[in-house]
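Consider what follows.

. . .
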Amino acid sequence: MADTQSRTAADTSGPGAPGISRRRLIGTAGATGVALGAVGAGAGYAVASATAPEQQTALTTLGADRVMFHGKHQPGITTPMQARGHVVAFDLAPGAGRKEAAALLRRWSATAERLMAGEPAGADDTDVARDAGPSSLTVTFGFGHSFFARTGLEKQRPGALDPLPDFFSDHLDKARSNGDLWVQIGANDSLVAFHALRAIQKDAGGAAKVRWQMNGFNRSPGATAHPMTARNLMGQVDGTNNPKPSDADFDKRIFVPASGSPDWMANGSYAVVRRIRMLLDDWEQLGAKAQEAVIGRRKSTGAPLSGGSETTEPDLEKTGPGGDLVVPINAHARISRPDQNGGAAMLRRPFSFHDGIAADGTVDAGLLFICWQADPLRGFVPVQRKLDRGDALSEFIRHESSGLFAVPGGAQKGGYVGQELLEG
């Protein structure tokens, strides 16, 4: 689809191939387009492949894949999942306001456009990614709630950006939550992603400083015998029923309409970002059947416990020989289904993370949960409230940081992200 803004070079036979940057293209490890999440289906923390099997790319051509910076929507939303990601929040420096923010977004947009084309960041490029092509690099920019007060633009702050409510499962670290500005970086090569991260950080200069940074990963294509839904860090097949761009109501659920309010958010979206730690030591003590009861799906195939294949809709009324529900009343697959949440849905596009061993001696690993929706009050919030009240999976996860960001539509050629807001 055009909205994915992605194209692949047709000829990768050599460094001079048409449509490819001046860098020599090499084979890279990339993503299947399957995100890793906290398991389930429908509107919960399930994550689906953002690309169809026929779109899978051979390992030898991944470096040539290019995503376009300019377009109706920003890249990194409907773009197929990448193998490596960084999410970073910045706070404007003391004394920096609207003028400095506009100059920063102009610099960031110009750098992102060059890097996504496989070109050097600028005259002082670090050469970290010299030998790689674009590798499906995307750079996405958003604004936090606090940004508008810092820049005198409170009247332009969307109502949908009101702070998220408190949830029972929250154990939030304020230092790793929120922020004035948010940047998401994804690529199918780790050095390409890191190169973009350093360029964005350097471009911030004296206008903004890093508030927090998180790093994640996804499965690389070619790691399985055939394209398939990924397994998350809990070992579950994860991501069967994510909304797809081909769905009739996809744009309505994910993007702010062109006639939406405020005007500068037309064709944009709202990103909820949560660091969800998986309590793997506790999870791994459960037997396979107990894990399946928590999720409501077979661990081997991802099929619902009520029968069928991975894509079969769970039969939530089916009972076993003893009269008990086959899919338990508190199973994640049951609670997270759109029809159990008033039709609420969101596009989940996260990264897994592993940050070593925590101070308490447990594994510090889990999910950098990123979901996209036209309105978080009708997307993320109702689903999380439902999960908060009785999801069996809640015992094995912990929400440790949180942020909500307004992500405007894509920049026009010659313009920059957020221009309508900052110059309107």
Observations:
- Confidence is low (pLDDT under 50) at residues 1-54.
- The chain is about 20% helix and 20% strand.
- The two ends are 31 Å apart (CA to CA).
- Residues 28-423 form one domain.
